[in-house]
Amino acid sequence: MMRGGRGAAALAAVLGALGACNGTTGDQLITFTAYASGVDGASQPFAVGGFTVQLTAARMRLGAVYFDESPPSTGFDSPVCIAPGIYAAQVPGPVEVDLLSSQPQEFSVFGNGSADSALSWQIWLTDGDINESNFAHMVDLQGIATCDGTTCPAGTAFSFGAVVTINDNRVPATSDPAQPGENPVCKERIVQIGGIDVTFFDGGTLLVTVDPRQWFNLDIDFSTLPRVTDAACLTGDPTVAVNPGDFALAPETPAGGTCGASGQPCCAAPASNGGCDGLLACTSSDPASGVCGPAYCIPDTSFGTGAGAQQGVELFEGILTGGGAAYSVTYSHS
Amino acid sequence: MLAFGAAVAAARPAWSQASPAPAAPTASAPPDAPAPGSPPPASAAPPAPAEVTPPVVLQHVDAVYPPSALTTREHANVVLAVTVDADGHVSKVDVLESGGTDLDEAAVVAVRQWTFVPAMRDGKALASRIKIPFHFAPPAAAPEMVESTQPSDRLPVQPSVPQAAPPTAPATPPAAAPASGAASTANPSEGAASADASQAVQEVDVRGHLDARQHGTSDYQVTLGEQKAIPRTNAADVLKLAPGFLLTNEGGSGHAEQVFLRGFDAHEGQDLEFTVDGVPINDAGNYHGNGYADTHFIIPELIHSVRVLEGPYAPQQGNFAVAGSADYQLGLDRRGLSAEYSAGSYGTQRLLLLWGPTDAPTGTFAGAEYYTTDGFGANRRARRGTGVGQVEIPVGQKGTLRLNATAYLTEYDNAGVVRQDDFDAGKVGFFGTEDPAQTGNDSSRVSLSATYEARFKDIDVSQQIFLVDRTMRLRENWTGFLLDVQEPTQEPHDQRGDLIDFHFSEVTAGARGFARWHGSVLGLRQEFEGGYFARFDQTTSTQDRIASGSNVPYLIDADLTSTLGDVGVYIDSNLRVLPWLGFRGGVRADMFLFDVLNNCDVQSVDSPSKSATEIDLSCLSELEHGVYREPFQRSTTGDGAVMPRGTVVVGPVEHFEVTGSVGDGIRTVDPSYVSQGLVTPFVNVQSRDMGVAYNREVGSDLAIAAKSVFFQTHVNQDLIFDPTQGRNTLASGSTRTGWSGSTRLLGRFYDLAANATLVKAVFDDTGACAPACGLLVPYIPDLVLRGDFVFFHDLPVSLAHQPVRATVGYGVSYVGHRPLPYGEVSDAIFLSDASVSLGWTLWNLRLSGQNIFDSRYRLGEYNYASDFHKLLPEPTLAPERSFTAGAPRTLMLTLSATLGGA
Questions:
Q1: Least CA distance to A174: which residue of chain B?
Q2: Closest approach of chain B CAs to the CA of A301, in angstroms?
Q3: Cα–Cα 20 to 30 A to B147, which of A143, B578, B612, B730?
Q4: What is the DSSP letter of B622?
C-alpha cells in the first residue's frame, strides 16, 4: 500500500543520498584464519571402561570443517552430505593435527563465510572427494591400556595401535532394496556436532579442538584385542595394514631381549619381574631388523567377525559420535 | 516524455498508444498539441497512386490565434483542402471542417503563404490536392513539440521538408513519412482523371497510425533518428535512450537481456511489458522466468521508435508492466533496397538486407539478417537468422491494414559465471568458463499479426490479432557440483553436476483493440477510449539436470504443461478541464486463468515400499509406504485485478508541463507456484510519480526537451534472482524510490541525449523505517547515467559533385555500484561506444566500436555458494564471489548501399 508519510521520508532519504550507495543488503562476507589442536592433558592417563589408558600418539586428518546455520539434521538427513545454501562459514582444506599437542596447528587454507551464526558444524574426514572410498589414514592412534582388574588381572598392560580409514570397511549394507542409497560413504565421513552458537565476523580466528580421549567412552575392552600379527589387524590394502612398523617408538629401558638395530628390548616400562610385560612387540625376531611397536591393534573395520570386531566398531562410533565432548570450536578476535 | 519522441510518435505511433504531440496533418491532431495556430507538420505520407510522389512542405507560416477567439479561449480544429500547383504554390484553399469563421480565415491566411515541393510523377511536377488540419488552442497552454520522421538535418519540429537532403541522408524523405491520424476522406475523383498529367489535380490520401496519448512525465517516445549512428547490437540496446536502463546478459548472445529499470531487476524482461507494434513479446508460463522477453528477433535498423512508459500509468498496459512497458514501433525510414555487410572483432559478421518501396509508407518493408560470431571468449559463439516482412495496405477511404510476419532463430553457447577465486588462482580466465558444457542453447520465434486502424467521423478504431510460436532451450550451470543431494531411493552416486537443460515452447494467440471517441466539451477537446486485450497461451516447460561428462539427464526438475489465459478490458480518458489542466487515465481489469499440469509432481518419497521398483526416477508413482499414485498433478487457479491508473497534467506556464501519476499493476507468477498451491497467480504493484517536462523550440535551429521525475513503486512480492536456481524467485515485498532525468537537444547538425536515474530499492519488512532504511534489494544499481551524442554534417568536400556526409556518434554509460548479497557491492562500470560514418550517394561506410577503451569490467556480480571443483578437492559451501565478464573492445566495419529510394 502506498504510505504517504513514509513515502515522503523515502524521497528525502533518496535525495540525501544522491550518488551514494546508501544502505546494505545485510550480512557481510568474511575471511579468517583457522587452527586445530589437541587438548591439554591428552597424553596423560585416563580411566575408562576398566582400564587406565595413556595415549602415546594421536593424529587426525581434518579434511575440512563447515559451519551450518541450522541445527543438526536428523533421520536420513543426519548428516546431510552436502546441503547447499545454509553454511555460515567453512575451512575447505585439510590439516593433520597432533592431538597430543595443545599448540594450534594451522589449516592449509583460510576460512571464509558470512557474518552469521552457526548452530552446528561438521568435520569432514576426507582426503579428496567425500564420496570416495580410499585408504587414507583419517586417524592414527597408539597407546597403552592397563587393566584395573575388572575384566583382566590388574596391571596387565596392552600396547595398542589403531588406524582408521573410511571405505567399504565402514559403509553398512543397505537393508531396504527400495532405498539403495540410504548409506552413502559420504555419511561415514562426516562428524556432525551440534550445540554451538558461534557468530562469525571478519578477521577472526577459528580454533578447532579435538580430545581423542572422548573416543573411548564406549568402553573398549583392550584385553581381547588381536595381536598385530593377527589377520584381523590387516586390512585389504597391505599398504595401510596395521603394521607395528607404523608405530615405531624409541626403545625403552632395556629389560632383557633386544629388538632390531637398536639392540634394545621393546619395553614401555620394566615389569615387576624384571622383564618386559609384553607392552611392545618387536616386528622381527631378527636382531638386525625389526622395530618396536604396539602388540595389539584395534581393527580398522566396523564389520569384523573375529577378535577385536566389537572394538573396531566402538572406536569408529566413538569418533563419529564424540559430539561436543570430543570436539569443540571457538571463534575469537585475532 | 521527450518531445521529439512525441512528435515522431505522432508520425509513427504505436498501435494504441499515442504521444502527446503528434504531427498529424489530419483532423486527428491531439488536444494536447496546443501551439497557437501552429499546424502539425504536413508530412503527408500518402499512399498515393504508385507513380506519384506527394507534395512536401518547403516553407510554412503558423496561423495566428485570432484575438476574437481569445474571449472564448476555445480549442478547435480547422481542416483545409489545399491545391498545390506544379510550381509549389498554393492555388486554391477550401475549408473541409470549419472551426469558426475567424479560425477558418486565420488558417487560410497562413496556408496561402506556404510553399511546397510539388507532387511529382515520372519526374514531372504536377498539381495536387492535400488535406491540412490546423488545431487552434489558446496561447497560454504549453506548446508541444511537433516531430517528424525526417532526416535530422532538419529540426524535427519543422514540417517534414528536407532543406537540403543529401543523397545519403539516412532518414526517410518527408514524402514517405506517414502522418498520424486516420486516413482522410480523399475524393479520388477530384482531378485525378485529367489527361494532362502535369496540370491534373492529384488527390492525395493522408493515412497513418493512430497515435497514443501521453501518460505523464515518465512517458518517453523515443525516435531513433540520427541516434542510429550509435552502434546498437540489439533491440534492447535502444531502450538506453530512455533514462534508467541497465542491460546485462550472463546467458549468451541469444539469451534475453537482464533489464534493470527504476530499481527493478527485470531479469530477462520479467518486470517490463514488451511489445512490438502491440504484439506481445513476454513469455507467459516460462518456468525459467515468467515474462521472459527475448527481443533479439527485432532487427535494430527496423526500429523506428520505441515508446517507454516507466511505471504502470496507462490503462493500456497489461501484465508484466511493473517497472513499465516498452513498445517497439517498426518502420524503415531509408527507402529502397539496402544491403549491409559488417565484419569485425572475434570473427563477427553480419549481413543485412532491407527493402522499402519508395512509394510506400515506412510501415511497408522487408528485412533479413544473418549474424555470426565466434565470441570474445570461451563459450561465446552465436549464430542468428531473422526475416521480417510488413505491409501497410489502405482499406477503403479511411482505414489501414498492417500485416506482419516474422521468423527468427538462433543457436548460441553460454559462458556462465566465473568464480573469483578460480580466476585469482589462474584456473579460469576472465573471459573463460567454469563449465564448457553450457552449449547448445537456442531460441526461435515465428509470429503473424494483422492490425486494422481506421477513423470513422469522431471515433478511431483499432483491431489487432496475433499468433506467436516460441521455443527456447537454455543450458546453464550456476553452481557446478553442489545440488545433487543423495536421496535414499536413488542408487548411490556422487555429485553428478548441476548443469540444467531447460526447454520451453509456447503458442500464443490473441487480440486487442480499442475505440476512441473524441469530441468537444466545455469548448475543449475530450477523448474516451475503451479497449480490450485477450491472450491465450499453451506452454510446456521442462528442466532436467545433466550429468557432467556423459551429458545424460539424470533428474527432472520440472515438467509443466500449462494453459494460460488473460483477458483485460479498460477504459481510458483524455480530458481537459481547463486549457492548462487535464486528466488522463482510467481503469483496467484483467482476469487470469492458470491451468497447470505438473507431470513430475512426486520427486521423493520418505518411506517407499520395499518392493518398489521405481527407486531411481524423478517422477515417482508412489506415495508413502508404497501407496500407488500417478506422478502428475493438475492445478487450476484464476483471479482478477482491477487497476485504476491516472495522470494529472498541469501546464499553465509556456513550455512547461507538470504531471502526477498513480497506477496499479500486476505481474503473473510462473506456473510452478500454481502447482505448489498458490491461489492468486499474480503479484500487485502500486506506483506513483511526479515530474516536470520542458519542451521548447529556439528559433528554427534548436529544439530542447527535458524531463525530471520522482517516482516510487511498491510490489507486494518481489522477484529476486537466486543463483542457486538460476532464476528469479518470489520474495517479500519491496519499495523503490528514486529520481530520473533526461534531456535531448536536437539541432541542425547534432542530436544530443542524456539521462540519469537514481534509485533506492529496499525490502519492506527489514526495518522499522522502511522503505527509507530497510535492507537493499540486491543487484539494483543506485545510479545509472547514459549519454548519446551524434554530430552530422556534409563535409566541405564532394565527390563527383555529390556531397559526402559525415556522422560521428559517441555513447557513454556509467553504472554505479550495485549492492550484492552479504553486504557487498559491485564495481562501478564505465563504458564508451563510438562510431564514425561517411555517406556518399548510395554508399555508407561506418566504423563502430563498443567499449572503445577496452575496459575490463564485470557485467554481473554475485555472492553465493557454488563449487566447480577446480580450486580444492573439498567443496566450497559458503558464499563466494562470482561474476560474468563484460565484452572487451569490439570493432565493426560496415559497408552498406541503398538502391532506389528517395
A1: B488
A2: 21
A3: B578
A4: B
